Amino acid sequence: MGHAECRKIFEAARVVRDLEIQCNQVSDGACTASLSVTEKHLQHLNVVHGGVITTLAGHAAAGAATTLIGSNNFVVASGFTAKLFKSVRQGDLRATATVIEQSERDMRVETVVTNLVNSETAEVARVTFNLVVQSSI
Fold this sequence. Notes:
Elements: H1 2-12, H2 14-19, E1 22-27, E2 30-36, H3 50-66, E3 73-84, E4 92-102, E5 106-115, E6 120-133
Antiparallel strand pairs: 1-2, 2-4, 3-6, 4-5, 5-6
């Protein structure tokens, strides 16, 4: 799909638009996305909801995977693990996703989410994607 298709998956995903997640940089096997924390991202303890951080990580991972597949294909997450390290109350978050392993049928992507206020790691996620050829659906 390439770089343009990677950006399209950010535009097409309603939840990503609603959370105001932005695709910042794209290269082969990599994607960087960001989120400026606002009040709508906070949960009842006034920290960013873990689901918001995980959505940022997951979509950056999907973007990275998308850069390495053909135009008639797409990826579907089949596994997701995440480790939350630090609570986030304010500022900007950056998710840096990199494909770390690839085969004919699947790939694994690691995403590191960093709080740009203090350069601390907020989350590390690993996502496994299965490759789906559109003609096979």
